[in-house]
Amino acid sequence: MRIFHLIGATIFLSDLSFTTAFPASDLIEPIRYLEKRLWLADLPPIEPTIPGGVYHQRDQVLINRLIDHGDGPYCVLALLATSRGNVGDQDRWIGWPLGNATYRYKGENKCQNFKDLHKMIPNQVSSYQVTGYCECEFFDKPNCEDGKFRAFNRADDSLRIHGNNDILESYRCWTEMHMEKAGSCLVFYGPTNLRRELTSMMGKSNLDGDDVKIKPPFTMATISKDMMFLDGPGSKLRCYRLEPATIVEAIVVRSCSCVFYLNDDCTMPLSNPQEGDFSVGNAGWDIKAAKGDYDKVSFGTLRSFTCGPPYGVSSYTRFWDLPG
Length: 324
Hints:
Elements: H1 2-15, H2 24-40, E1 53-54, H3 60-69, E2 70-73, E3 76-80, E4 92-95, E5 111-113, E6 127-131, E7 134-141, E8 145-151, E9 154-156, H4 159-162, E10 170-175, E11 185-190, H5 194-201, E12 219-223, E13 240-241, E14 250-254, E15 257-261, E16 271-272, E17 276-277, E18 279-280, E19 285-289, H6 293-300, E20 304-308
Antiparallel strand pairs: 1-4, 3-4, 3-6, 5-10, 6-9, 7-8, 7-10, 11-12, 11-14, 13-20, 14-19, 15-18, 15-20, 16-17
């Protein structure tokens, strides 16, 4: 019986003569508007008013990685009311003043007031860190007035001792590589005893010189700053192949920052949640060595690398300071 009622209703409606015609746009446009609102509901604004950062977030793994390793070439700024050793403290702001691969923020040379980042850091910053291809200037007053100092891949854990403690209120950052300061990049790789081999082969007189030579089973690559990029500074980095006959269990890098890859064309970087992309190197000396079977397998899969001007805070300015 219901089927006959439905059929009858359908015929009745089809026989009605509507005197008013509704334009299709009157129905389609509201649907499109609603669809657009639903689609964009969970997305951040395309042009945020302030740079992205972590402050109240409790992702301690991410926070530790940004403090210990930065974010590769991306500009990372850390502002803390205490020291970097107390990075768990909530009175801090750590973020990307110029954006990164996933966070689109156009902060080039844009003045940023501390009060808009975190209400507890104006006139409270006692330590800071700047890493990546950028330089930042810090100011005593809001709106970037009364400049105090600039920082490029630098950290200070005690402004209380070195000056400018609890007075900073704003900053400005811009893209910078300081190519004029870049020296020749040295990359060594080989079996576990690489550091010991380097120690025995390099005398103190030429320890940090460019005339260092090393023999198999170890391999060395020298990359001048002119050979880092394909088409000049800021363009794509050149891809270099690792010697396939060399067993890679340790890597030592001087005066550059290198990322290592799992394939031959430098498109699949080795990475982990603690350190991000597998990179080695800064303005000084740096070393990475396999510390277990898992590391040895990971190191053994490396096939290529790229090297650019150094980024990151240098912990070892001399070869002799390297651990191992």
